[in-house]
Amino acid sequence: MKRIGILTSGGDSQGMNAAVRAIARSAMHAGLEAYGINLGYKGLVEGNVFKMDSLADLDGIINRGGTILRSARFPEFAEEETQLKAIEMLKKLGIDALVVIGGDGSYHGAMKLTKHGFNSIGVPGTIDNDIPGTDFTIGFDTAVNVATDALDRINDTARSHQRIFVVEVMGRGAGDIALWSGIAADADAIVIPEREYDIKAIANKLTENRKNGKDNGLIVVAEGVMSAEEFKAELDKYGDFDSRAVTLAHVQRGGVPTAKDRVIASQLGDYAVQLLLEGKGGMAVGIRDGKPEAHDIIDTLENHKHKTDVSLADLNDRLRF
Questions:
Q1: Is 74 annotated for ligand binding?
Q2: Residues 118, 15 share a domain
Q3: Does residue 50 have a known ligand-binding role?
Q4: Looking at the domain assignment, is residue 315 inside a domain?
């Protein structure tokens, strides 16, 4: 093996650049050539590839949000013909292995390449924390901190104006961001897709709180449940609330990555290269109990699912109610 390709795909997440840096530098340290692929799978098929010539080229990116390789949605990659074109391009460029940084869709792309016999490794880069085989994904910690900061600010206004705020956070179909930021921000209720909820019961509790002297409230809703506006409309049916709906949206995906995301990205990026040097491909890497580990990417995606720790929701209920 002489050349490794690196691409970021799907939604950006804080720490992707730290992972790019780790993969490229670890490859160079081992005497390999590292090639960056712009615009994800789309850029791969089009041959939008450049050589990372020196370690100096990677200076100053560990703390940058977004991805220097940029990303692009490319639904055509679901087609076998497009996948084979990508492999043809990789062989034409002399790239022997591909490291893909991204979320669920990106992982499925790497899995398809693996099934076609091309050496690929998935590195979990998504704020949603919804990838099986890892405790945390790159970007999750930063997104939680951004959401928590926003919730703290909203709480200030809620207390000042005696209002109820329904705040929608990202996470796709997973409730992890809602759980972690909601607990950290002292939310009155956290609503996630992995757990049953009762809007009427939440409204009744807010009314009871008001009678007991707490005249404001904060409800954190995961986007996989419904929108903040929809939840607010349902909530208002069960009480005379001065309520507001807020959607945090893409502010959660950008900005400077936390130290934790930078370290996880560095660990996983280096680990992916070490696996390739050992002749191991077709893997999905992740963090378990602070240590990197790897699993077969086909088995990981076809036979396992991410499990949100719903006990955190129970914890919040005990602390709030």
A1: yes
A2: yes
A3: no
A4: no
Pairing of strands 283-288, 217-222: unpaired
Same domain? For 210 and 221 the reply is: yes
The model's pTM is 0.96
Q: Is there a catalytic annotation at residue 141?
A: no
The total of other beta-carbon atoms located within 10 Å of residue 271's CB is: 23
104-113 in b/e form (b: 16+ CB < 10 A) is bbbbbbbbbb
Residue 319 belongs to a domain: no
pLDDT, tens digit (0-9, with 9 covering 90-100), for 246-272 = 999 999 999 999 999 999 999 999 999
Distance between CA atoms of residues 151 and 219, nearest Å: 10
Whether residues 271 and 281 share a domain: the answer is yes
Within a domain: residue 308? no
Contact of 143 with 170, CB cutoff 8 Å: yes
| Amino acid 253: pLDDT | 96
Query: What's the total number of domains in the chain?
Result: 2
Is 153 annotated to bind ligand?
A: no
Residue 215 labelled as part of a binding site: yes
Which member of 57, 96, 128, 176 is catalytic? 128
Residues of the chain with pLDDT under 50: none
Q: Are residues 297 and 205 in the same domain?
A: no
Based on the fold, state whether residues 266 and 215 are members of the same structural domain.
Answer: no
Q: For residue 211, what are the domain limits?
A: 141-254
Is residue 8 located within the same domain as residue 133?
A: yes
Q: CA distances (Å), 314 to each of 11, 148, 169, 202, in order? A: 30, 19, 19, 14
| Model pLDDT for residues 14-38, shown as the tens digit of each residue | 999 999 999 999 999 999 999 999 9
pLDDT for position 56: 75
Q: How far is CA 270 from CA 22, 37, 162, 316, in A?
A: 5, 18, 50, 37
| Spatial distance between the Cα atoms of 144 and 92, rounded to a whole number of angstroms | 41
Is 98 contained in some domain?
yes
Burial per residue of 60-77, b for 16 or more beta-carbon CB atoms within 10 angstroms, e otherwise: ebbebbbbebbbeebeeb
- CATH number, domain containing residue 37: 3.40.50.450
From CA 186, how far away is CA 95, in angstroms rounded?
A: 49
